[in-house]
Amino acid sequence: MRPLLLALALPAICLAQAPLPRLALNITEHDFGRIAPDRPVSYRFRATNTGTGLLTITKLNPTCGCTSTVVGRQTLAPGESTELEVTFNPAGQSGVVHKSVQVVSDDPTGPTRTLNFTANVLPAISPGTQEVLMDNLVRTDRRLRTLTLESGTGAPIHVDNVELSPAPWLGVATEENGKQLRVELDMHASLLPPEKLEGFDTITLRLANPAPYVASIRVHWAMRPPVTVTPARVAWAEPAGQERRAELLLASPQHQPFRVLAVRTSNPLFTVSAPSGEAAEQQKLAVLLAASAAPGHYEEKAFLTLDTPGHPELEVRLSATLR
Prior knowledge:
5% of the residues lie in helices and 58% in strands. It is mostly beta strands.
């Protein structure tokens, strides 16, 4: 019986002593810290075979196309090491970025291991886009506005070119100051188109920091309305079956006489009293809701045609909830 037991134990002993590979990584996390958006960065992780058999690293799988990898030697004898190089291209990325790379090997205890890295991608220019509002303008206004753009990479800002949509009413001047760029906007409201009450202009700054970079400034301008209407919305919440009436007051903030040329509504149940046809700094009109209006909810508009340049028509919201 003893020889038979010995024969059965030998395969188990041989199996237990079979050489096995083991993949050990010096670290699995790396922080690149603050980096510029135009400069790829690399780091080398160290991989060691701590097992007793040959280790083969079959492939490296990055999680995005912005990461590339290189393995030094794919097959390692026991005790040998190699380097796994990870390169991250931050182009198109911003803020704190987390990425990973999968290491695939024939280590039976862990065929897939993960390498993680973090980077804080700084914007080349901060802020890259700005919105500027110049509102409540009158024709005699001259508005100055100064903006500051700052280098996010620490490199000095240089202006290669300034482009402005056709806008003779808007002047642009720049001043370089190392890592900062001052942009001065000079608005001449007297040159704005007389037929428009508001508009947008775009300033494009082509910069070097040190790589080419494009920053945009969008300027929204709005004239003070030549005529205001109070209230801007007429609303009723009343029982049905009775005529309803509300007053509208139209006024010129610049005290310029104007005329109401015509009135109309989007629903014949709502009417607006006929204008006098005379010019005045203020005009009073009445809005009427017919007694024949059935119960329900109404959302309509009144349109008032004026003789003021750039403001030929006013809209007034009309709403009613009748029960």
